[in-house]
Amino acid sequence: MQYRLIKKTGDEISPLGFGAMRLPLKNGKIDRAEAQKLIFHAIDNGINFIDTAYLYGDSETFLGEILPDIRSNVKICTKLSAINVRKYDDMEPLLDEQLRRLNIDCIDYYLIHSVDLKNMNRLLKRDLIKFIEKAKSDGKIKHIGFSYHGPKEEFRDVVDCYDWEIVMVQYNYFDENIQASVEGIEYAASKGMGILVMEPLKGGILAGKMPEEVEKVFRKSNPNKSNAQWALEWVLNNRNVTCVLSGMNNFEQLNENLDVARRTTPMSMSFEELETVELAKRVMRNSLKINCSTCGYCMPCPQGVNIPECMKIYNEKFLFNHKGFINPSLMDYYQYVYGIMGSSGNAGKCNGCGKCLRKCPQNLDIIAELEKIKREFEFPGVKYLFFFVRHVGFPIYKFFVKLLNK
User: Fold this and answer.
1) Helix segments in 191-250, DSSP class H
2) By residue range, what is the domain housing residue 157?
3) Which neighbouring-strand residues pair with 145?
4) CATH number at residue 367
5) Residue among 178, 195, 199 nearest 186 (CA)
6) What Rg do the C-alpha atoms of the chain give, in angstroms?
7) Sign of dihedral through CA atoms 150, 155, 161, 162?
8) Which terminus of the chain is more exposed, N or C, with fewer CB under 10 A?
9) How many domains does the chain have?
10) Average pLDDT by consecutive 10-residue portion of the chain (406 residues)?
């Protein structure tokens, strides 16, 4: 496996990292024996980067149980939960709790979790930089970065607000121009930052069964290559990507991903292979309910609606035939648009001002489309439910997590 250098830190990182958010479960809890076997197998085969977060349930505590056996072989990355920070004095206790959970004295890579420009500015006003500098000088963290969940127009501003060493972005062949975007990744890399990629398989969607016409495109090119392999190769082919994080919860997934990571080096995909991915993506785009290219020209919305993201999630619901009350598109909408993981930008905030209409290259009736999206995802009373979740449910969740970790 060829390791990739983070210029700002000098660390050489495996191109495949172990994402510890989706560890194997047993009776609703982490299957510790199976998860340990997976992680040890990953390390034995060259993986040297493990990613977790404060909000990933019992993940940090589990890693703390096995870290004494693997600490010298891996870099540990975890995240400060931005939604838990209301004032400066909240930050260090959160970090100290994570150090206790992980059973270590120093975290290699510490990310500010799930920020956009608005959320970052809120944290900066609460002396985030002071906290970072103190944590570094106290030896509690080595390197600092952030995970991004905002529009691509704001990405550079967040990159430029501090001397970050690493960033985590969503990036896959279907979503190459959202959030950070290709240009944003290039910009961060030009500053020497390490680029961590989350959702390379789009939460598993790009690894599963695709629309029939897309399947035909991939099988015609190479009948022996799985959808997951196409998606991972495409991301790892980007020379600016340092490490792809994958939430592997069985040995089949792990071994398949290891195989891709070993043989995919930057710029190693052929022109024909890249054309195959582009054709598959074009077929998917032609099947969309709303002809939105996620170009972002409609932004910013005066009411704060994340128009491209709302349309993207709505399109995916029908493209990938997501059904049922709990489905990936619905979860994405509430996680990334309604405000669970950052600032809210849901379709229901649209007041019909029309400023977006004259800026859309596709001449979409954005107001009408947002109304459809609102009807699809936002049930009556949802804002009161989320107020309850944020101000009552989440504190209760934190209480029980602390109780379980004692």
Assistant:
1) 212-221, 227-236
2) 4-278
3) 111, 166
4) 1.10.1060
5) 195
6) 21
7) positive
8) C
9) 2
10) 96 97 89 96 97 94 93 95 93 98 97 93 97 98 95 93 96 87 96 95 81 93 95 97 94 95 96 96 85 79 92 87 81 81 83 91 88 89 62 56 52
